[in-house]
Design a protein that fits this description.
The protein has 360 residues and is an all-alpha fold. The chain has 14 helices and no strands. It has 2 domains: 100 residues, no CATH class; 218 residues, MetI-like fold (Orthogonal Bundle).
Length: 360
């Protein structure tokens, strides 16, 4: 019995022969990337330039597809080789789609790190002509205007979404949906011109205020909040509403106690993403809020700087030493990207921890 068992266990598995190992494609990919990166680095050293990260990724993807296909064809046969080629092609297509993002992040991080220091986040641009200065006035202005826009937009957008899902019927609901769709596609400069014209009627032409910039951002933010909240409210099962009505709970209380708590995670995620969407707008703030080098905490008095407008001004209005202005522009862009990334992470955490628990 033991001899039979030993002979059975020692027999080779016919399905394990002629196959690549599970980690072999990863080893091939890493090896290709290393070789291509070294080649691009040598070319860059010869030409006196930097390593082209986009070229490294693109060339590595092409060489990997050829290598893994040939290797699989020699060992596994044509059928498995075609399967690996298609798999590599799909993965390479995904990587190529990410190339603009990879290139953007690589460029902004490498060029923005030059001024990413304590002074940059504790000083403003007041009385700064050349080297030095910071963006504290722009960060404060961005946070104040974005927070004010959220305070204006979230109640309006949420109430509009509740009306469309729970109460809206007939021509009025269709009209609101139509105008929300139209507002979603309007250019951002139109929102800035609208806010500027409203304040120009009361305070005269040439008025630039932080509150005007906040209203311009709220015009862009409201349709995003309406759409995201509407989608989240529609996901609430009707059975929950019907169970509440069966217990004699009125409709408004059902919305407050059943519908909103069930969809709160999606609503908060949509609001956070809407804030991340408008925080990088430049044109409406340039028109409505203007720009200044001073630190301003008052939304209702004087011009107010924002991060996107500061990046724009630093890049187009370079002084006697352009490199100082370019460094500040790249560092400001890096700060803005980090803020947007932080908001997206917050949205994901909200969706994870505030989602209703379905387990028993």
């Amino acid at each position: 019995m033991s001899q039979t068992t030993a002979s059975t266990t020692s027999m080779p598995n016919p399905y394990a022969t002629g196959l690549l190992g599970k980690r072999t494609p990863w080893y091939v990919l890493i090896g290709v990337i290393v070789v291509v990166a070294i080649g691009f680095w040598l070319i860059g050293q010869a030409d006196g330039g930097d390593v082209n990260i986009v070229g490294v990724v693109l060339v590595s993807a092409i060489i990997y597809m050829i290598t893994i296909y040939v290797l699989s064809l020699l060992i596994e046969g044509s059928r498995k080789a075609k399967d690996r080629l298609v798999t590599a092609l799909v993965g390479s297509a995904f990587v190529v789609a990410l190339l603009p993002l990879i290139s953007l992040l690589f460029t902004v991080i490498t060029k923005g790190a030059a001024r990413f220091d304590i002074e940059f986040f504790t000083y403003s641009m007041r009385n700064i002509v050349g080297e030095g200065g910071g963006i504290v006035h722009a960060v404060v202005g961005t946070l104040l205007m974005t927070l004010t826009a959220a305070i204006i937009s979230v109640p309006i957008g949420l109430l509009a979404a509740i009306y469309l899902v729970e109460y809206g019927r007939g021509p009025l609901a269709r009209s609101i949906t139509f105008f929300v769709d139209v507002m979603t596609g309007i250019p951002s400069i139109v929102a800035g011109l609208f806010a500027y014209s409203v304040f120009a009627i009361f305070f005269g032409p040439g008025i630039k205020l932080g509150i005007a910039g906040a209203i311009a951002l709220s015009v862009l933010m409201i349709p995003i909040v309406v759409r995201s909240c509407e989608d989240m409210l529609k996901l609430v099962p009707n059975e929950l509403r019907e169970a509440s009505y069966a217990l004699g709970v009125p409709k408004w209380l059902t919305v407050m106690k059943v519908v909103l708590p069930t969809s709160i995670a999606g609503i908060m995620t949509g609001v956070t993403l809407a804030i991340a969407r408008v925080i990088g707008e430049t044109a409406p703030l340039l028109v409505a809020a203007g720009f200044t080098n001073n630190l301003n905490y008052n939304l209702f008095e004087g011009r107010m700087q924002s991060l996107p407008v500061l990046v724009y001004n630093q890049y187009v209005s370079q002084g006697s030493v352009p490199q100082h202005y370019i460094d500040r522009a790249w560092a400001g862009a890096l700060t803005l990207i980090l803020i947007v990334m932080l908001l997206n992470l917050i949205a994901r955490l909200i969706a994870k921890y505030f989602a209703p628990k379905t387990g028993r």
